Amino acid sequence: MTPSVSPPWRALAGLLLASAPMAAFQGSAAAPVGPVPLEKRGPAVGSVAPEFRLRDQHDREQTLATLAGKDGLVLLFVRSADW
Amino acid sequence: MELQAARKDFEAHGLGLAAITYDNPETLGDFAERKGIEYPLLADPTSETLRRFGMFDPDASAANIPGGAAPGVAYPGYLWIDRAGVVRERYLDGSYDDRRTAGSVIGALFPALLSKESRTLAAPHATLALAQSDREIVPGNRLTLALDLVLPEGMHVYAREARGYRPIELALEPSPTWTLSPVQYPAAETLKVAQLDEEIPVHTGRVALRVEAALVVDPALLRTLETSPGQRTTLHLKGVLRYQACDATQCFPPCEVPVAWDIAVRPLDFERTDPFLRKPPK
Q1: pTM for the whole thing?
Q2: DSSP state of B281
Q3: Is residue B273 part of a domain?
Q4: Which end of chain B is more exposed for a tag (fewer CB within 10 A), N or C?
Q5: What residues are paired with B215 via a beta bridge?
Q6: All residues at 6 or more sequence positions from A38 whose CB lies less than 8 Å from its CB, including other chains
């Protein structure tokens, strides 16, 4: 596996985190919350996914029933639409 | 947005498409408007749904969360959930620097769609079709490359498991630009050779090889993109296919065919939403 290099904003993040106003943020970072291994993430194939009820970008309430086509739903998990 | 284009392929196959983030609905509304996104973007500002799905990333370190942003993001990945709520398939990615494209998910769910737009090359005793899940990607994307060796009736090539023979092999040039998966070969058939009292693993018909290639997020590449005309560049992923074709009466000399995929690359998108619409840091 070739090591990847962080995009430029990560360097910026490092700078900002070093400053005083981010102290509370650093506190939460220090909590013992190691990353979850890939095989322990997400519901298993064949299991029933948790139900959900969330607002979309138009502030409409959405559930599996409102989003699924005849054969279901492809749900993409992403970090943020902002950064 | 790549997914906006992929939506019609999902819908044509009876699947809805939605994305979930920890942003608030206002941030998502602004993003959708700027990018022309019509599929639902689901807001999970408390990250509660992410937690229940086991997709909550607890890493609040600076390396994972950029300055000023709140922790509690989703791990990257795709789930296919049927109407009864059962998870039918899942594609989870190790990190956002190695993330499967929607095109690659479509190619995995519906293999026929992957070869829809293939390039055909002449090859000894066969035809070669090259295809790719995406024409254009950004650094950190992982796409699927497809190579189908199509053999005429009565012809076979040796499979990887065929000991003492020249098996089929796709060898891609190693490159610091790409992280490549091992080549996926199809399951072999068994050829019974009565005269030799031997069973040999072979392939016949359409031999579908697949490789996943992730474009490394490299500062030099990002700089190249910034200064390229139209902020686009094209990368060429090259390799060679080796095989030996045989029919019922004879085996032809082993051969090598050079192959290459052209992949357009565009820069990462760093555009942010209006500061007033941003999720407040925690």
Answers
A1: 0.83
A2: P
A3: no
A4: C
A5: B178
A6: B92, B94
Cβ atoms within 10 Å of B259's Cβ, excluding its own? 21
Closest CA in chain B for residue A36: B57
> Domain span at residue B35?
2-111
Residue B212 zone, left/alpha/beta (φ > 0; ψ -120 to 50; rest): beta
Residues of A whose CB is below 8 A from B83: 64-65, 68, 70-72
Answer yes or no: are the C-beta atoms of B212 and B180 closer than 8 Å: yes
**Alpha carbons B140 and B221: distance in angstroms, whole number:** 11
pLDDT category, A34, cuts 50, 70, 90? low
B86 to chain A: which residues are within 8 Å by CB? 46-49
Cα separation values, B223 from A61, B270, B282, Å? 42, 14, 33
Pairwise CB contact (< 8 Å): B19 & A76: yes
The answer to whether residues B49 and B165 belong to one domain is no
B238-251 residues labelled b (16+ CB within 10 A) or e (exposed): ebebbbbbbeeeee
Asked if B94 and A38 come within 8 Å (Cβ–Cβ), the reply is yes
The first and second tokens of residue B183, run together, are 């080549």
CB contact under 8 A, B31 and A73: no
Contact call for B14 and A69, based on CB within 8 A: yes
Q: Do A80 and B69 touch (CB under 8 A)?
A: yes
Final residue of a domain: which of B84, B111, B138?
B111
pLDDT for B135-168, tens place per residue? Answer: 999 999 999 999 999 999 999 999 999 988 999 9
B14 with B147, same domain: the answer is no
Residue with tokens 């509690």: B72
Which residues have CB under 8 Å from B256's CB, separation 6+? B240, B241, B242
